[in-house]
Amino acid sequence: MSCPQNMLNGVAGSILENDVVDSDGKRRRIPSLSLPQRENAFLIMIQISHSIVDDLPMPWFGLDIGGTLTKLVYFEPTDTDEFIDPETERLVAKTIHNYLVSNKAYGEAGVRDVYLQLNNVNINARTGVIHFIRFPTERMPYFIQLVKSKGFAQMSSTVCATGGGAIKYSKDAEQELGIQFYKADELESLIKGIEFVAANNPDECFYYDNPLDEEKCRKFIWRWSSARCSSTDEERKDEHVKDGLQYPYVVCNIGSGVSVLVVRGKSQFERASGSSIGGGFFAGLCCMLCKCETFEEAIELAARGDNKNVDKLVRDIYGGDYDSVGLPGDTVAASFGKCCASDREKIRVEDLARSALVTTCNNIGSIALNVAISHGIDRIVFVGNFLRVNPIASRHLAHAMNFWSKGTKKALFLSHEGYFGAVGCLDKLVDVTEMRRNHRNGNGVDPVMHKDS
After folding, report:
1. Which UniProt keywords apply (predicted)?
2. What is the DSSP letter of 257?
3. How many CB atoms lie within 10 A of CB 13?
4. Residue-level pLDDT at 382
């Protein structure tokens, strides 16, 4: 989009971003026009409105529209004492705050995960809070109507989104809201989100000791940047801490399905493996076998169940441990192996749910470990919405990793679980806006139009 000629008075120039400092010390964020030097070598700055140049206007959202769950992150600026934002943006921000931030639940299924809120985060030279909200993807049409009725998107021309729904719902978003979805790559968004959150939350990463022992199980924070447990903080307080994450590492992303990635550096990653046996498999199996209505209900059933009543164990076959190959007697030999027994009527739905969970976790753990071994990597990180409100799955994954690696590798987990794709989109929004600005200045292609082509 170019400036009207009558605004330029026939003089060629270029659009710039500027922070203008007022007499009271506040910075006013305005786009401006830099005109070429004249004979007296002075620079004329002409303020132009956001309708002419979109200087990443508020609000800033990131969306990950998955097959089952949609994750939304919202950046709310808190540095209002330093910046004077346009009146329209302040009104929209107030409306969003009053509705989203003042509530923890929205309608029948929308939830804001307050405990995950990140404070004092810096994005695009602004400081603020990131809020984390989720709702079932099947409710996406209702979400679009809500955004329209509340006027949340009236200042935004582009929203970065990832996941299959970014394609499925892009037409509805454009027609109903007048915005375009920039369809960010899922895996790139995932890695960008992980590294952004880990850099802003030193307590993000954790692991379990004695994961399946109800009395001895303990959760410990893992200092990823320095590869040590948080219990050593005091004795290592004077030690130089390396910046960011330490490479390489394996990421196992568990959503409806499973993707396993090898990450060797910033923007250096590849998908090494995957599986269809993930969160969707677990939830679907529980719906059919246990008559569950929701993922949460399936997890609650599994928490009360015992898979040993359903799975055939090594001791059921050998009468004890299988010493010659190093298999303890309580190792699962055949998932659901006891369902064909004559006394199967004793099996409870809770036991079936627990067996489905253990089967899913064992499969995922095996795949992730094999990738780590084949690539010579020790750090294995599990993320994804399958782990949300699901510490049982995390503990089973931790046990599987410890057992099959003979204690040489630990399963690591991240607190923000399934939100990393959405956070990566929020970070990508800054890049997209800069690319669009360059396009308007004749320095490249429009990333949104190029992405759709």
Report:
1. ATP-binding, Coenzyme A biosynthesis, Cytoplasm, Kinase, Nucleotide-binding, Transferase
2. S
3. 14
4. 97
**Phi and psi at residue 384, in whole multiples of 5°?**
115, 160
Task: Return the closest-CA partner of residue 241 out of 224, 260, 258, 266.
Answer: 224
First to last CA, the chain: 19
CB of 424 within 8 A of CB of 189? yes
Give the span between the Cα atoms of 364 and 275, in whole angstroms.
Answer: 8
Number of Cβ within 10 Å of residue 23's Cβ equals 5
Task: Name residue 321's amino acid.
Answer: D
Reference 390, options 66, 69, 162; nearest CA is 69
Q: Catalytic positions, please?
A: 186
Structure-token pair, residue 257: 């399905």
CA dihedral sign, ordered 270, 273, 278, 280: positive
> CATH 3.30.420.40: which residues of the chain?
203-310+347-414
Q: Which CA distances in Å does 193 have to 187, 199, 294?
A: 10, 10, 27
Q: How far is CA 136 from CA 62, 206, 278, in A?
A: 16, 27, 17
In 51-92, DSSP assigns E strands to 60-65, 69-77, 83-84
Task: For CATH 3.30.420.510, list the domain ranges present in the chain.
Answer: 60-195+420-452
- Residue 70 β-bridge partners: 65, 135
pLDDT of residue 440: 56
* Arch. (CATH architecture) of 60-195+420-452: 2-Layer Sandwich (3.30)
Report the C-alpha gap between 382 and 260 in whole angstroms: 9
At the topology level, CATH places domain 203-310+347-414 in Nucleotidyltransferase; domain 5 (3.30.420)
Ranges of the chain with pLDDT below 70:
1-59, 81-86, 88-89, 153-158, 225-244, 432-453
Q: What is the pLDDT of residues 336-371, one digit of tens each?
A: 999 988 778 889 999 999 999 999 999 999 999 999
Q: Burial of 285 by CB count in 10 Å (0-12 exposed, 13-18 middle, 19+ buried)?
A: buried
Q: Check residue 281 and give left, alpha or beta (phi > 0: left; psi -120 to 50: alpha).
A: alpha
In this structure, which amino acid lies at residue 42?
F
CB-CB contact of 307 with 301 (8 Å): no
Does the N-terminal peptide bond of residue 59 adopt cis geometry, omega within 30 degrees of 0? yes
Nearest Cα neighbor of 156 from 190, 133, 179 is 179
Q: Tokens for 53?
A: 């140049």
Tokens of 11: 């003089």
pLDDT attached to residue 236: 58
Q: What is the pLDDT of residues 5-23, one digit of tens each?
A: 333 333 333 333 444 445 4
pTM here? 0.78
